[in-house]
Design a protein that fits this description.
It is a single chain. By secondary structure, the chain is mainly beta. It is about 0% helix and about 45% strand. The protein has a single domain, classed as Neuraminidase. It is built from one helix and 34 strands. The strands form nine sheets. Strands 1-7-6-5-4 form a five-stranded antiparallel sheet, with no helix packed on it. Strands 2-28-26-25-24 form a five-stranded mixed sheet.
């Protein structure tokens, strides 16, 4: 197939969701959902009409999202789809990364997973990081970077960042701060399951054309799900989960990626086992504001009696070393039955401090005490215009979905290990996996965003928000899901 196979440019019509999809005990319905990609593949080895685990990035009026397409049961997908808007979400161009898997342009790999999107302002290059997978046995064979030099409208064959070890959970970020001495550096993070879950970083200073040697932290730390962010002075802070998912950690570099510090503990994690055999874990979502304050959110049950459901919680830091006490984002009251998980945080890069604009998408069950047959999965959204001191009432972006309508994996039903939100022009754009009901045995699970960006007007109206307050965790809060006994892999 050519690099432009199934590439299309169109104004996708907003979906008129059935009335049943608009109902939720926990939220009001928000903007119309907009489908911006599909699964075109037909190989019999994966589940088709499935798209899971989106990431996105915005710079100026350009938004780029990427998503696993054609999910395999035991890891990875047939390919990575991309969707690009050059006009702030009005029109979308869609396509599929060339040269990675055998299902697109004769790529060398069997599968691919874990897309992450970045933009390098110095070199005017868009990048999608991905995890190449081989079969028999299934293993992470390489971390790749696909590049676009025309605003995300076409993509070249991938560059290999590393092909050493059994790699997992890659992420990418670029230093777009013109005053930084490391302006134009891009950083890729991953962990190596074959090396005990050790985390590595690699640096590029030429727009992703070449990448430096893999570099561990000074103490060879392990972890999973790192999300590097860059502060205005060029310091790179990498929040991540511990290898056994029992704590949120963070390490950093102040020398352009030459060395990486020993991680500090942001917080221990108390996590509720989500019902219905849905694949979730307390991976962090991290962002940074205009002055360098770092925000990290994850799912956690420390504020709930007997860990019955998860909240989305947050900690912040100005230096990546000292972190604030964990606070609960007040999506609903602590006594509610709502279970919240898989958060995707965005911070408007033009805002900071007490005026920072935050947007948070997440998945939730209106009633966390459900079963695989009865759980109803929805996508929610809240925002803050005061740096997280107060938050809007929750909005429902899409749902409910039945669990049987989403892709099945060896770790449970899957919408993704992460979800994504980005800001463009002061508007928030959530990107999420949504599934309509099965048509017989055929899935209808695809990448969606909102038909227009979500304005911060409600967050700016103090009367419409709920303050975080001074809530204290339940004494001796503990997870009701056992700590992993082996290195966690999530491909």
């Amino acid at each position: 197939m050519s690099a432009n196979f199934f590439r299309s440019t169109r104004r996708v019509a907003a979906l008129a969701l059935p009335a049943a999809l608009l109902l939720s005990a926990a939220a009001v319905f928000a903007a119309a959902a907009l489908k911006i990609s599909v699964d075109p593949y037909t190989n019999v080895t994966s589940q088709h009409q499935t798209q899971v685990e989106p990431d996105s990035f915005a710079y100026g009026s350009t938004l780029v999202a990427a998503v696993q397409t054609g999910r395999f049961y035991d890891g990875g997908a047939s390919n990575i789809a991309w969707s690009t808007s050059a006009d702030g979400g009005l029109n979308w161009t869609t396509g599929y990364l060339p040269g990675i898997t055998k299902y697109q342009d004769g790529g060398p790999y069997d599968r691919v997973s874990d897309p992450a999107v970045a933009y390098d302002a110095r070199h005017n290059v868009w990048m999608i990081s991905s995890l190449a997978i081989t079969e028999s046995p299934v293993r992470g064979a390489a971390v790749l970077t696909s590049r676009s030099t025309d605003g995300g409208l076409t993509w070249g064959s991938p560059v290999t960042v590393t092909a050493v070890g059994d790699v997992d959970k890659n992420w990418i970020v670029c230093d777009n701060h013109a005053a930084s001495v490391y302006f134009g550096n891009c950083y890729t993070e991953w962990d190596d399951v074959g090396a005990g879950g050790r985390v590595f970083m690699s640096t590029s200073s030429d727009g992703g054309l070449t990448w430096g040697a893999r570099t561990p932290t000074v103490n060879n730390a392990g972890g999973i799900g790192g999300q590097p962010v860059v502060q205005p002075d060029g310091t790179v802070v990498v929040p991540m989960n511990s290898s056994f998912q029992s704590s949120i950690l963070a390490f950093r570099s102040t020398d352009g990626g030459a060395t990486w510090t020993k991680p500090v503990t942001v917080s221990a994690v108390s996590s509720h086992r989500v019902a219905g055999n849905l694949r979730t874990s307390p991976l962090p979502s991290a962002e940074v504001d205009a002055t360098g304050k770092v925000y990290v959110v994850w799912q956690d049950c420390r504020f709930r009696i007997r860990c019955k459901t998860n909240d989305i919680v947050m900690s912040t830091s100005t230096d990546g070393v000292s972190w604030t006490a964990v606070v609960r984002i007040p999506i609903d009251i602590r006594q509610s039955r709502v279970d919240h998980f898989i958060p995707g945080l965005a911070v408007d890069p033009a805002t900071a401090g007490a005026g920072a604009h935050l947007a948070l998408a997440y998945y939730y069950y209106p009633n966390g005490a459900c079963s695989a047959a009865t759980c109803k999965l929805s996508v929610g959204f809240v925002s803050s215009a005061d740096g997280g001191a107060s938050w809007t009432r929750p909005q429902q972006l899409a749902g409910p979905m039945t669990l049987s309508s989403i892709a099945s994996t060896s770790q449970g039903r899957m919408v993704g290990d992460y979800i994504s939100t980005s800001f463009s022009g002061g508007l928030a754009y959530p990107f999420f996996s949504f599934a309509n009901a099965l048509a017989g045995s055929v899935f209808d699970q695809a990448l969606y965003t909102t038909a227009s960006g979500i304005a911060m007007s409600e967050a700016l109206d103090g009367a419409a928000t709920v303050a975080v307050g001074n809530e204290q965790p339940v004494p001796n809060a503990q997870s009701d899901r056992p700590e992993a006994q082996t290195i966690v892999t999530q491909r």
